[in-house]
User: Fold these one by one.
Assistant:
Number 1:
Amino acid sequence: MNIVVMLKQTFDTEARITLDEKGKINREGVSLIINPYDEFAVEEGLRVKEKSKGEVTVVSVGEAQVQEALRQALAMGADKAILVSPGGMEVDEYVTATILARVIGSLQYDLILAGWRAIDDGSAQVAARVAEILGLPMVNMVTRLEVGEGSVLATREIEGGNEVVEVPLPAVVTAQKGLNEPRYPTMRGIMQAKKKPMQKMTLQDLGLDAGQVVPKVRAVKYYLPPPRKPGRIIPGEAAEAASALVRALREEAKII
Amino acid sequence: MPGGIWVYAEQKDGKLKKVTLELLSAARKIADEQKEELCAVLAGRDVAGLAGTLGEYGADKVYLLQSDALENYTTDGYTSAVTALVREHQPSVFLLGYTVLGRDLAAHVAQRLDTGLFTDCVDVRLEDGQLVFKRPIYAGKAFFEGVCPEARPVMATVRPNVLPVNPPQAGRTAQVIEVSPQPGSIRQIIRDVVRQVSTRPELTEADIIVSGGRGMKGPENFRLLEELADVLGAAVGASRAAVDAGWAPHSMQVGQTGKTVSPTLYIACGISGAIQHLAGMGSSKYIVAINKDPEANIFKVADYGIVGDLFEVVPLLIQEFKKLKEQG
């Protein structure tokens, strides 16, 4: 069973967002992590691999610093990593998916895993687009995965419950929180990761010309939300405060 | 005349989702400004009865896709049926709800159509003849506005509970066009569906949310929040700390690695207010915080705060709200 995991490096969840002088999201000094949903995907890939023979390949689109995230996945136990640099070009979900599908299309795979969304732009599109380009069935937001002979049985979150979906392999499966508890890399894993292959590619290496990687959407501007107006602390003993709060919600806010 | 402004009319168990009405209201405005017709796509089994409501809320046409194969949502079946319809009529805009179904369907359809898609939008407006889509990024810590200059239709999923709903016009009807759907071969086989029976509203659609964090001290104490929620007709949420401790399921988590919510009222109980939690609920209209720690971050965003023991305050609130309810 060969598994490919699509991975994105994102800002840490506790990161404060600021804008740079060009009005774009400021990346200076922000600590970076593997997108938490992709980390579930890496972990699941490793668990599937441990039950069957095969390799886990992690792929990402981004600049040099993404190697850190890929190296962490290798330290967790993935076998090799591929990083495609878009060479400073603007990318959207369409372009990222085009690049990833091109890379994955050149690999041997039975199962493709990814997080159901990234915590930065939260687009929740790339995995679906890759599945469409490669003509593969997909199951989204999976919290439990059983890999069988030629198919997978995936439990996915739906509104107000769960459903169990079977799809034939190869397939794309996206991870939702709850799928597993990702492992921490061991010291041995970290040492081994240094020797594992990390292939760096350009769009030319993939045979993609400029006309094939034109974004469909364009950013007009980024901005920060206005700060919330400071509220007030309702004083008094619990009983007094509770009754004053209910009164305020009814009479001031008029929402109860 | 181009194929119009399209809205995906999501229904569940024969009922239209509220976000569908929100989409119709927003799309009606765009359709009027662009002088295009507003069309709704309604898919499922035995859903024709909903077409009337779509007309009352502004649809000029309803494309009705009915088939046994569409009884349950499957990625393949719905993607193929909806893509075929879009290809035939070539709308200029296609809006869906940012729901479990909507975002899966939208992403697959967008790729088949080689077009752009904006996810989780909170505003769509026409500026110099071009639609501008506004969406929160970093779970609301920043906003992005973007355009899709060439590819059509431009697609977007819109966050539930944000856009206003226009009042329905009784007697207004939509032309219903029955289409025989082309679901193609469906590779997803649904083996089982487990529904959690809940009388409470869906977290992302709720008007009021009562949410608990580390201060709840244990899973058993969420009963208290459920009681408050039921008095208010609210949904119950939880912070990451409470979910990670195993006190509440992940489906209840509000925050950057959980759900993003925009209720009218968010009552945070025993929640310190980590950045990643604030990101998920900061767009609530009113925030109430109850926390023992007067320095808790949550008080910086709360409209009303009570510094105190939630185990003392929440039962009193339940009493007060009950009293209010009895008074009518």
Number 2:
Amino acid sequence: MNGEPAIRFERVGKRLGGRAVLDGVSFEVRRGEIFVIVGASGSGKSVTLKHMVRLLTPDEGRVWVGCDCISEARGGELARLRDRFGVLFQGAALLQWLTVYDNVALPLREKTTLSETEIEARVMAQLEALGVADAADRHPADLSGGMQKRVGLARAVILGPEIVLYDEPTSGLDPVTSRRIDDMILEMRERHGLTSVVVTHDLHSALAIGDRIALIDRGRLIEVRTPADFLRSDNEVVRAFLSAQYITRRGAWETEMGR
Amino acid sequence: MWALRFVLSRRNRREVLVQLFVTGIKSLGVLSVVAAFIGMILALQTGLELRRYGQEVNIGTAVTVVMVREMGPFMTGLVIAASVGAAIAAQMATMTVSEEIAALEVMSIDPVRFLVMPRLAAMLVMMPLLTVYTNVLGVLGGAVVGKTQLGVALPAYFDNAIQFVRNKDLYVGLFKAMVFGVIIVTVACQQGFQASEGAVGVGVATRRTVVISFLTILAVGYMITRLFYT
């Protein structure tokens, strides 16, 4: 991991439906780190994530990916910048009429000139790595939530992106499956050295996997800290967020001891 | 030419074939019933009037001209808008609200090329063919009513039917059908892509697609008729 930022937000502001959903947000995501954005529902977490891949364009400020300004990129340049990302959407966003295999093969078929034999080898290897090879011929609707997320991740990383964005990866999942998804995110970083940005309201998950945690509240960035510092923070908004998830200072001490 | 190249390219061929099946084959059932009844109604209404002047033998002309010029493409357009157009809108809207369209954008896969173009290509091929099918069934439906209700012999009906229909009627009718196909796909995809969050948004997109398609088909159909026949 080096100090050069993979993503940089520069005083980003966004209004949707007449309401400020992001207000002067600035932060950096370092290469190779797992950067977790937490906050209550409607605080602006997912909006922040969508700005990183230009699914939304900021009204004010700029978003940088490495040395390139994605918020002002057009056409081919935007496509080239987006190619550096893989995104795991909240509901996995798998194409429902395609099988698991075809979903994961889609980026390879659309964006490479690989033969069908090469595509099959890469897709099956990826599905094996994520433990969903048995589901290759099934359709997304036949899979559990956890399996859909793993297939979504397989599709997100099949082209070898530098940065993976996870939008609420554990939402709607039981605690055991949630921990498996957390392990998968850690494993992706260990195995491929990926930069990861995780948006979640699951603070336990954030503390377990994050190198740094950012709290967004009502469109404003409150703090960016390591998990240990985040737990010790005196900021009122951070303390309220922690106590809402039953994490007290004593709990913080216990968590730190556990790490 | 672009359409032909698009259809024949390897990565689009499969999806275009699926859409040809969905647009064409799956619509045949309802279209057959509608076409036959339209022809039968036309034959009965015109036949009863013509009988007063002893001219019921001319229902073949009346049914065929009206079917080929107007009712064939028009009824095909309405049926396809209500069935295929609504289905396209619901699918696109569901994909929008479940972030599948966003996933395509992030993968730099153009949703227009990936989703709209195969449907448009299939519609451009299928609408004229379905219109010919509607015309034929409508004329046959009229022949059945002519024979059974009005006592018009089949040879006389078909002689009249063929005698007064010009090539121009057929070409303009098929041109209308293609324009209606473009309207249906464009409206359905545009409404689907604009859907807001949730199941309500899917319903709104579907309803708007049917209403806007119907009204546009009516207005554009009138304009094409006026352009070619006045």
Number 3:
Amino acid sequence: MALDLRQNKYADVPWEEKERLFEEVKSDMRFHHALYGCYECGVCVAACPSARFYDFSPRVIAQAVAREDVDLVYTLMNDSIWDCSQCFSCDRCPRHNSPGMLITIMREVAVRNGLETAREALEGYGRIIYKIMSTGTQVSPDMLQPNAFPDWGPHVHHISENLEVWRRALPPETLHTTETGWAVSDKTIIELYLIWHMTGVMDMIEEVDEGLHMILVDVMEERLEEEGYDVSF
Amino acid sequence: MIPLPVVKKASERDFRLPENPPTEDYHEALDELEKDGEIIVQRVPEPYIEVKTKYGRTKKIPIGKTWHHKSCGQCGHIPGYSTSIFWLNRQLGLDYIDPKDQTSCTAWNYYASATSNSAAQAAVAIRNFAAAYETGYYPLIHCGTSFGHYKEVRQALIHYPELRAQVRKILEKLGKPLVIPEEIVHYSEWVYAMRDRIAERQVIDMSHITATVHPACHYHKLIEEDAIYTPEIYGAQRTAIITGVLQELGVNVADYSTWFDCCGFGFRHILVSRDFSRSFAVQRKIEVMKEEANPDIVVTHDTGCVTTLDQSQFAAKAHGKKVGIPVLSDSQMAALAMGAHPYLVLQMHWHNTDNRPFLEKLGIDPDEKWREFEAAVERLKSGEQLYLTWDDVEAPVAAK
């Protein structure tokens, strides 16, 4: 879908709300290291993979933020930032801007504030969040199922059929797992849960996926309780 | 054609380092923080190999005593990638740890979904660094994104005292120190630094092989400072990683015009919006390589790049696209050159694009090797063995 920068698609959202979110973006400690001004040279766009396949421009992001165009920043925060590939090719900016980092910050604000577009962007992604937060590894062998990767062809079917024995055929003993990328010790998982607890990450999850939040809380609280931690998320 | 004497080919350009590097020297910043008692700097163990980074600074690459910070994408879906790294270490007689006290860096999720924040990301990174420090072994980062992200974390911790305070408090609760390694080292830097020793043990001739190289974005673009460059390779206008190793192995490295482009991985895209990843990988990378260089193999050095460039080719065949180039990591290529088994070590059956013609071109019979793999698997199925171990796969390789 074409990104409409002329119309104010979000006219019904109070300007004060848009400004509040923009101020949240600007208050991130990394903000001033991500934006120093913009020549409009377009080097970032030339290097950007998403700009080739979407109506997306890292230059527009940098410009809108630099001009403090509150309406446009809100539009981009809803309709553009999730197209970014986060490759940071745009870091070759001659002004040392990082549009990719600006987008990281904008995405965080979108998630933290539960924007509907952030929820939509993350639809279907919940199982990945569950995996990384609950097990400490993001990609597991048992994710290789034909229905999840139909475009990768029959070899995915072949792997999933032989998964258990092929994992046992791996010489490093940490790799015999099927539900996690490698064997992670219990102590390590507990430490990871404590990090999630102490940094407010679970509150972010709740904003974009209440169901996932409930499942994760159940898993983590039970495990922490077993280890003697009285922690509630 | 209009002669333009001032425009030289990359290979003819003079290499000049900038008088004043445009980036800060993180070594100095880390030393200052250590002097102030704010952090512990884990030093690269001796012996190490010195290499030069983008702006001419020296970086130390450990040889042994390494703590392997594994990659979830490699271990999960292309396990021969990590297995080859371990195999190389073992063949070279080096001491290492493959830890269970390690989590993913969680950066793939962060770049995909933003369901995290600076404090959590930094705490996860430092928890892993502290786990390595406690063992006395030095972290070697397998994943390009972990490498790039940890450089971001290092930069943030250097510049934002409030983040340091927050992370220190978290680490105290975990009973761990705030440790930052002297160098953040990617495994491909280790392969590069060890390339002469690898070449000494090469048993498979690769001089008739043409390869194209894809350098990973999060290696050389995300915090560009500490990626390896040398005037001998593309006049130091591109990172020396991968290319230096392949040249040492006698491989013909062919150039192509879209070398700077990313692979199309996209983090969230490869999982939930794969039409973009497929289109980009095929149209901007594989087809261009095929057209301009017609390589036997694509070699890269990151999890997402191997996955995207390899897996995207299947669906593209249905559209009559010019695809069909197998994809391997530099660690797999190095192991193959040293005589590693293509299935027991490289685990090439987890890869998608047909790699049998490539093996045949190297004089390796894929049918015979597959039969050997199946025989080993049969021992597992019959209960004769529970797991394959290094003893089952580690054929000794003679040095030259």
